């Protein structure tokens, strides 16, 4: 399948397709508008070379129409991150070979002063046709639909090649797996320049004919009001939105809403359970990345702390030896006793999976594809029954007093405390050798230094080396536009510890 084939199937569908603020479009109107965009852009794009349209927009109706326009196959869309600035934004535009940028008054000034030689900028004053002829292009599943930049948590963002089948396959899969139908309303508040919103929010609706209800930018305080106003039955998320919504004041009628299903990744177990109970819906959490080469599914029976069962070919390998890591062994308290040998990198041993490579970055693609396998950059370990447990990014491999530690398991333990809403564990240099641990915490309840130390003492699966040396209580954590924590910003800033533990002690002051 191609995205074009999905759009053609909706061209005569008069049911509701798109809701943005007070405006509504039927599928017939939405598909026609997308054809009009293709016809107008064809006059602006170069006759030869990459035909790439950069879109610098929030989740507006124009953003959704531009997505559909790219589906016809006459050009590819480039999702430009609205949080990028100056030379960083310009570098993205250049790397992606963008010839036309579509923007609006909200973001037009981000382009001011940039050397956009040969780039045409189109804003809301442009007179878009309401319809146009179907372009002659006939894209296949392997053709380029979109370029999506990675979040950039571990370096400069890379442009991931998103093919048509990388949209249509998960659209069909999620529709079937989650039981989505044309009667649903998909609430899409995650940014549409990123893969989660496109693949988990927009694409299934194009496949099954559901309506798409847009929020320009995610708002925790507006979430429930939006769900009720739009009649939303389904929502997607990535990162911490569950925690953000749960931090809003609870009301007795929170469960009186049409929402029945929420799907996303990186939610923690406490928030997943509490969100479903509070709002009377089912929350399905998975694991994935923009590259989508490693698939892990949270299925029935998934143990606490686990991501779930790996898909075919997914394993945990030692990046130094190139061999599969031994399975994790646990002590009576649930702590991993062989962390140094069982933690490795998540790989797809069968090849690229749905990863189609990075655009204009052969070295980064080669780094991912070593020895015929896809290396994700994510650390994990696997138990005797095959369940996978996340251990962080490769930069989250820490060394304290000669012992290797992974950040993610420590973060999961910290999140057990009911007052801790968010936790980020990272390293600062030890004056002697190795690392000292810092925990940055966002609190939603009372917690002092003594209570924190007592809490850690009660966690039988926490290694003595895993006690943070420094604790920072902060109002918020630095994050990307897709809610991933930027630990390098925490490391680069001043330490400013709220509580400090003596080097060999167990109390905080």
CATH architecture of one domain: 3-Layer(aba) Sandwich
Structural class call reads alpha/beta
N-C termini distance? 60 Å
- Characterize the overall form: globular
Spatial strand order of the main sheet: 2-1-10-9-11-12-13
Mean pLDDT: 93
Class of one domain in CATH?
Answer: Alpha Beta
GO molecular function: ATP binding; long-chain fatty acid transmembrane transporter activity; long-chain fatty acid-CoA ligase activity
Protein name: Acyl-CoA synthetase
GO cellular component, one term: plasma membrane
Family: Belongs to the ATP-dependent AMP-binding enzyme family.
Give an overview of the whole structure.
With 509 residues, the chain is α/β, with parallel strands linked by helices. Among the domains are: 3-163, 3-Layer(aba) Sandwich (Rossmann fold), CATH 3.40.50; 303-346 and 368-395, Luciferase, domain 3; 401-500, ANL, C-terminal domain (GMP Synthetase, Chain A, domain 3), CATH 3.30.300.30. The protein has 14 helices and 26 strands. The longest helix has 16 residues, at 27-42. The mean pLDDT is 93.
Topology overview:
Elements: H1 3-10, E1 16-20, E2 23-26, H2 27-42, E3 52-56, H3 61-70, E4 76-79, H4 86-95, E5 98-103, E6 120-122, E7 144-149, E8 159-163, H5 165-178, E9 185-188, H6 195-208, E10 211-214, H7 223-230, E11 234-238, H8 241-246, E12 261-265, H9 269-279, E13 282-286, E14 296-297, E15 309-310, E16 314-317, H10 339-342, E17 344-348, H11 362-368, E18 369-370, E19 373-382, E20 388-393, E21 397-400, E22 403-406, H12 407-414, E23 420-429, E24 435-443, H13 449-457, E25 470-473, H14 487-492, E26 499-500
Parallel strand pairs: 1-10, 3-4, 3-5, 4-7, 5-6, 9-10, 9-11, 11-12, 12-13, 24-25
Antiparallel strand pairs: 1-2, 7-8, 14-15, 16-17, 17-19, 18-19, 19-20, 21-22, 23-24, 25-26
Helix pairs in contact: 2-3, 5-6
């Amino acid at each position: 399948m191609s995205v074009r084939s999905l759009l053609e199937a909706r061209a005569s569908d008069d049911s509701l397709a798109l809701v943005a603020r007070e405006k509504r479009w039927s599928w017939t109107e939405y598909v026609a508008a997308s054809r009009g965009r293709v016809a107008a852009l064809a006059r602006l794009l170069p006759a030869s070379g990459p035909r790439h349209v950069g879109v610098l927009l929030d989740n507006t109706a124009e953003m959704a129409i531009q997505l559909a326009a790219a589906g016809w196959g006459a050009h590819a869309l480039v999702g430009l991150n609205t949080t990028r600035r100056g030379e960083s934004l310009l570098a993205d535009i250049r790397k992606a070979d963008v010839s036309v940028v579509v923007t609006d008054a909200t973001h037009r000034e981000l382009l001011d002063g940039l050397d956009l030689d040969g780039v045409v900028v189109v804003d809301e004053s442009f007179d878009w046709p309401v319809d146009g002829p179907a372009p002659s292009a006939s894209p296949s599943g392997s053709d380029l639909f979109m370029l999506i930049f990675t979040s950039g948590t571990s370096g400069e963002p890379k442009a991931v090649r998103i093919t048509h089948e990388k949209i249509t396959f998960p659209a069909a899969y999620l529709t079937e797996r989650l039981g989505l139908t044309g009667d649903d309303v998909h609430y899409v508040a995650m940014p549409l320049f990123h893969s989660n919103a496109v693949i988990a929010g927009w694409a299934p609706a194009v496949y099954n004919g559901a309506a798409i209800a847009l929020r320009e930018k995610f708002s925790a305080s507006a979430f429930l009001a939006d769900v009720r106003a739009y009649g939303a039955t389904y929502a997607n998320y990535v990162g911490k939105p569950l925690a953000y919504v749960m931090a809003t004041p609870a009301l007795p009628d929170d469960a009186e809403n049409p929402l029945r299903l929420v799907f996303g990744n990186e939610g923690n177990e406490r928030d997943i359970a509490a969100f479903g109970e509070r709002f009377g819906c089912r929350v399905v959490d998975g694991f994935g990345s923009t590259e989508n080469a490693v698939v892990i599914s949270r299925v029935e029976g998934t143990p606490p702390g686990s991501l779930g069962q790996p898909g075919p070919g997914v394993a945990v390998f030692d990046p130094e030896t190139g061999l599969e890591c031994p399975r994790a062994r646990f002590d009576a308290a649930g702590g991993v006793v062989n962390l140094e040998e069982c933690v490795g990198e998540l790989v797809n041993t069968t090849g690229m999976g749905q990863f189609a490579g990075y655009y204009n970055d052969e070295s980064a693609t080669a780094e991912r594809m070593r020895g015929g396998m896809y290396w994700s950059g994510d650390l994990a370990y696997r138990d005797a029954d095959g369940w996978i447990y996340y251990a962080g990014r490769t930069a989250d491999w820490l060394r304290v007093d000669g012992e290797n530690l992974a950040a993610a398991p420590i973060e999961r333990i910290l999140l057990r405390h009911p007052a801790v809403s968010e936790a980020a564990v990272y390293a600062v240099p030890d004056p002697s050798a190795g690392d000292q641990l810092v925990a940055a915490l966002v609190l939603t309840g009372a917690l002092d230094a003594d209570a924190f130390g007592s809490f850690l003492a009660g966690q039988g699966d926490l290694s003595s080396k895993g006690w943070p040396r420094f604790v920072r209580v902060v109002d918020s954590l630095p994050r990307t536009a897709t809610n991933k924590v930027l630990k390098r910003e925490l490391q680069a800033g001043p330490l400013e510890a709220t509580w400090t533990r003596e080097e060999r002690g167990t109390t905080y002051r």
